[in-house]
Structure formats: structure tokens, C-alpha cells
């Protein structure tokens, strides 16, 4: 699952790990 909050990208990985990445505000990744 991929969620976008403002300029932050929150990625939920299947093994219960979370990764927080900074992305441009107007870009959607997923």
C-alpha cells in the first residue's frame, strides 16, 4: 500500500516495515 501525505510518501511493505520518503508535492507515486 502506498499513501501520500503532503510531500511525504508512506510505503507499507508486506513484512510490516514502513519506509518514509520525501517526494514532490505534485507527484503521486503508486
Q: How far apart, in Å, are the first and last alpha carbons?
A: 8 Å
Please, what is the oligomeric state?
Answer: single chain
Tally of contiguous helical segments: 0
The unreliable regions are none
Provide the spatial order of strands within the biggest beta sheet: 1-2-3
Question: Which whole number gives the mean pLDDT?
Answer: 59
Using only C-alpha atoms, the radius of gyration works out to 9 Å
Helical residues, percent: under 10%
Q: In the residues, how many domains can be counted?
A: 1
Q: What is the overall shape?
A: globular
How much β-strand is present in the residues?
over 45%
H/E element string? EEE
* Sheet/helix structural class: mainly beta
Largest sheet: 3 strands, antiparallel
Number of strands: 3
How would you describe the overall organization of this protein?
The protein is an all-beta fold. It has one domain (1-30). The chain contains no helices and three strands. The protein has strands at 2-5, 8-12, 18-22. The chain has a three-stranded antiparallel sheet, with no helix packed on it. A hairpin with a 5-residue loop joins strand 2 and strand 3. It is globular and about 15 Å long. The N and C termini lie close together (8 Å). The mean pLDDT is 59.
At a glance:
This protein is an all-beta fold. It contains no helices and three strands. It has one domain.
Write out key terms for the chains shown.
three-stranded antiparallel β-sheet, single chain, mainly beta, 0% helix, 30 residues, 47% strand
List the helices and strands and how they pair.
Blueprint: E1 2-5, E2 8-12, E3 18-22
Amino acid at each position: 500500500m502506498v499513501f501520500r501525505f503532503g510531500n511525504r510518501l508512506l510505503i507499507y511493505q508486506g513484512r510490516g516495515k514502513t519506509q518514509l520518503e520525501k517526494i514532490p508535492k505534485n507527484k503521486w507515486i503508486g
